[in-house]
Amino acid sequence: MRIIGNQELDMDEPLWRYFRTERFLELLQSSQLYFASARQFDDPFEGAVAVLPPGFPVDPRYAEVEDTEWAFEELRRLTKVSCWHRASYESDAMWQLYAGSRKGVAVRTSTGRICAAALPFRLKPEFGHEDLWAGNVKYVNLLKERLRVSMMDRFWYKHMAFAWEQEFRLAISVRMAEEFGVSVPEYGVKVEFDVPLLIERIYLGPSLPENDAAAIRIAAKAHGLEDRIRVSSMLGTPKYT
Question: 151-185: string of b/e by CB count within 10 Å (b at 16+)?
Answer without folding.
Answer: bbebbbbbbeeeeebbbbbbbbbbbebeeeeeeee
